[in-house]
Amino acid sequence: MTIGTSEAIEILGTISFAISGSFAAMQKRLDPFGVLIIAFVTSIGGGTVRDLLLGDTPVAWMRDVNYCLLILLTSIATIFFKRHIKKFKVTLFLFDSLGLGLFTMLGLQKGIVFGLSPGICVALGTITGCFGGIIRDTLLNTIPLIFRKEVYATACIMGGILYFSLVHFQMKSDLAKVAVIAFIFTLRVIVVRYKLSLPKFGY
Amino acid sequence: MTIGTSEAIEILGTISFAISGSFAAMQKRLDPFGVLIIAFVTSIGGGTVRDLLLGDTPVAWMRDVNYCLLILLTSIATIFFKRHIKKFKVTLFLFDSLGLGLFTMLGLQKGIVFGLSPGICVALGTITGCFGGIIRDTLLNTIPLIFRKEVYATACIMGGILYFSLVHFQMKSDLAKVAVIAFIFTLRVIVVRYKLSLPKFGY
Amino acid sequence: MTIGTSEAIEILGTISFAISGSFAAMQKRLDPFGVLIIAFVTSIGGGTVRDLLLGDTPVAWMRDVNYCLLILLTSIATIFFKRHIKKFKVTLFLFDSLGLGLFTMLGLQKGIVFGLSPGICVALGTITGCFGGIIRDTLLNTIPLIFRKEVYATACIMGGILYFSLVHFQMKSDLAKVAVIAFIFTLRVIVVRYKLSLPKFGY
For residue B202, what pLDDT is reported? Predict the structure, then answer.
C-alpha cells in the first residue's frame, strides 16, 4: 500500500497539532494524561466539529484508530524529548502552519463533496483548520490565541476564497489545492515573522 | 416572494444577536475577524446546538447561506458604526430580548415537530435561546452572564411552560406563539428595568 | 416493572453527578436556575457528547424525560438540604466515583454495540465518564479538575483496558463489567485517600 500526498500531509498535520497541544498542556503543568488529552483534542478537534456539523458520524477518528495511535505516540515522544524538541520551535511553527493549510483544504473539500455553497465551504474549511486550537485554549482557560494574536482564521478564509477563485479561472483542482496550502502556510510565516496583525478596537 | 412574520422576526433576532456578539468581542479588543467569528457564533450557536442534539444535520446555517451573509453585514456595520449604535443601547437590549423570545419559540416548535415530550421541548427552546450567549462568553473567557445576572434562562423556561398551558386551554397555536414571545420579551424588560434577580448562594 | 442492576447504578450515577454539579455551581454563587443548568450539564454531558460523536440522535436524555426529572429533583433537593448534605462529603465522593465507573462502562459498551475497535471504545468510555465534569468546569471558568488533580481520566482508561483484558481471558461479560466498575471506584478512592498523582511538568 502506498501513501498519497494528501495522506502524507494529513499525517504531518496531525503530528504537528499533537505536538502543539502537548506543549501548550505542559506549559500549564498538566499531568501526562492531561497532556495526552489536550494533544488529542487539538489534533482531532477541527475534524470532529466539521463532521458533527455535517452529520457525518461516527466522526472520522472513530473510524480509523491509526490517527489515535499516531497522536498517542507523538504525545509520548513530545513528553520524553521535550528539551530536544524545544530547540526546534521554528520547525514546530512551520509544521503547525502547514497543518493549518492542509486541514483547511480538507474541510473545504468535504464541504464541496456534500454539495454546500462556496461561502459555507470556506467556513467549514476555517472551522476544520482552527477549531482544534480554540478547544485547546478554552480547556486551558485562556482566551483562544485565534482571537488575540496575529492573522489566523483570516489566513484560512483568504485561502478558501483563493481556492474558489483559482478553480473559477480553470486551474486544475489538485494544483489549486497545493497553491492554497502553500498560500496559507506562507501568509502565516510572513505575518508571524514581521509581527503583522489586524487593527484592534478600544474605547 | 413575501416574507412571513416568523421569518421577519427571525431575521431581526439574528441581527440583534450578531450586534450583541460584535459588541462583546469589541469590548474584549479582538481584531475584526475575531469580532466576526464571535458575532457569528452568538447568532447561530443556539440553533446549531439544537440541530446537533436532534441530529438534524447539516445544521441550519449550512443549508441557507443568507443567514451567514446577514450576520457578516451586521457585524461589519456594527464595527463601522459602533459609536452611533452605542447610543441605542436600549434598542439593542430590546432586540436581544425579542430575539431570545423568538429563538426560544422556534426551538420549542422544532421539538414538537420531532415528537418530543413537552418538558424536553421546553429544554430545547431554552437551549436555542440561550446557547449562543453561553458559547460567546465561554470563548471570551468570562463566566457566562446567563449564570451570573438577572433572569435569563428562567424567562425561556417560563415562556415554554406558558406555551403548553395556553395550547392546553385551547388557545390557537399562532396566537399562543406571539403571546409567549411577548411574555419573554416583557419579563426580560421588567427584570432588567427593576434590577430583579433570583437569590444567590453563599456559605 | 422491575429495575435491573444497570439501571439502578445509572440512576445512582445520575444523582451523584447532579449533586456534584449543584455543589460546584453553588460554590460559584450562581442563582438557582444556574445551579439547575450546571447540575443538568454535569449529569448528561458525558452521554450527550458520546451520542453526538456516534451520531445516535436525538441524544439519550431527549428520549427519556425521566432522567431530566431525576436531575431536577436532585438539584432542588441539594439546594434545600445543602447544609445537611455537606456533612456527607465523603458519601458524595464515593457516589461520584461509582458514577464515573458506571458511565465509563456504559460508554465502552455502547462503542462495542456500534462495532468500534477496542481503543476507540476505551476513548468513548472515558469521554462518557469525564465529559460532564469538563463542561461543568469550563462553564464555571476554571481549568477542568480532570487536568489538574489526581488520576481521573487515567482511571477510566485503565478500567477500559482492564475490561478488554478480562473478556480476552474468557471472563463472563457481566462479571467483567462489575469488576471494572469496582476497579475504577477503588482506584479513585485509593488515589484521593493517599493524595497520589501523576508527575507534573515544569521548566
Answer: 46
